[in-house]
Amino acid sequence: MGQEKKEKKTLWDAYIFSVTYTGVTTLIGHPAERLKVAIQTNLFQSSYSVTKQFIGVNLKHFSTGFLSCMIRQQGKVAYRPLLITHMPKEIDKLQFPLVVGGVFKAALSSTFDTLVLSPIENIKTVQMRAIASQDKPIKPVQAMHTIYQQKGLPGFFAGSAATLGKSFPSWLYLYMTYQAIKTKREKQNFLSTILWATTASIPVAFTTTPLDVIKSQQQACIDSFKPTIRGIASEIYKNHGISAFFKGFNCRLMHKSLSTAGAYMILDIGSKM
Predict the structure, then answer these.
(1) Residue 138 CB neighbour total at 10 angstroms
(2) Which domain of life is it from (predicted)?
(3) Are 48 and 136 in contact (CB under 8 A)?
C-alpha cells in the first residue's frame, strides 16, 4: 500500500517531466529539424547537397529557427500533458472498443495540435527554408512579415490540412502502440523506451512523410498563390519524381522517435495518476 502511494503521480509530475524532456530533446533534435525543412523546401537539390552546405557553416545559420522550435515545443507543454493524461481517460470511460476509442483520441489530439501549432510551424518553416549557400538566416519577426505580406492572416494556417492528415495517424498509432507494448516496456529502462519508440515510429514516419513534404512546400511561402495538396503533389511528382515525397524521412524519424518516447512516458505518468 505504501509503495503504491509512492508511485502515485500528479499532473504536475507530467508537466515537470514535459518541460525538462522537451527542452533537452529540442536541443538534440534541432539540427535534424533544420535539415529536414531545408531538404523538403529545396527539392531541386539532392538531400546530400543540402546537407553538405551546412557542414562547417556558421553556427548562427545552422541554428536558424531554434527559437521558433523551442517556442513550438514548449508551447506543447502547456497542453499536451493534460491532453495525453486526462483526455484518454475520459474517452475510456465511454467504454468504446479499443480501435474506436483510439480514433476518438487521435481525432481530438490531432485537431487541437494542428490549430494551436500551425502559426509557429509556418514561421519556423519560412525561417528554415533557407539553405546555407543561398540566403542569410531570417528572424521570426521577418518570417511573420513574409507570411502576412504574401498570404495575410490565413497564411499562418497554411498546410493545416496536410498537417492534420499526417498528425491523425501519428496520434492514432501512438495510442495503439502504447497499449500494445506497455507491459513489456514497463519492465525495461529508458533506452529501451527509446528503442521501442524508434521501432514504433518507423512505419508511421515513413507513411506520413509525403504529407510532411507537401506541408513544408505549402508553408514555405515560395509562391504567393494558395496551392492545394493535390496541386503540390502533382507538381512534386512531375518535377522531382516519387522519391521526393520521402525526402527528410531520416530526419523525421529521429524527431518522431524522441517525441514518441516522451509521449509514452507521459502516458505512463497518466496511468499512475
Answers:
(1) 18
(2) Bacteria
(3) no
Q: Would 110 be classed as within a structural domain?
A: yes
Q: Is residue 6 part of a domain?
A: no
Cβ proximity of 147 and 126 under 8 Å? yes
Residues 6+ apart with CB under 8 A from 15: 77, 81
User: Using alpha carbons only, what angle is made at residue 173 by residues 123 and 175, rounded to the nearest 5 degrees?
Assistant: 100
Task: Please tell me the distance from the alpha carbon of residue 162 to that of residue 167, in angstroms, as a whole number.
Answer: 8
Q: Do 229 and 236 contact (CB within 8 A), yes or no? A: no
Q: Using N-to-C axis directions, what is the helix angle for 190-219 and 11-40, rounded to 10°? A: 50
Q: What is the pLDDT of residues 215-244, one digit of tens each?
A: 999 998 666 555 789 999 999 999 999 999
In tens, the pLDDT along 133-170 reads: 566 778 899 999 999 998 899 999 999 999 999 999 98
* Number of domains observed in the structure of the chain: 1
Which residues form the domain of 50?
A: 11-272
CB within 8 A of 101, min separation 6: which ones?
A: 88, 91, 92, 94, 175
**Joined grid coordinates for residue 182:** 506497455
Q: Is the dihedral of CA 168, 232, 135, 253 positive or negative?
A: positive
Q: How confident is the model at residue 2 (pLDDT cuts 50, 70, 90)?
A: very low
Q: Name the pTM for this structure.
A: 0.85
**pLDDT tens across 22-31, in order?**
888 888 888 8
Residue 108, classed as helix, strand or coil, is helix
CB-CB contact of 138 with 130 (8 Å): yes
Q: What is the CATH number of the domain that holds 201?
A: 1.50.40.10
C-alpha cell at position 113: 495540435
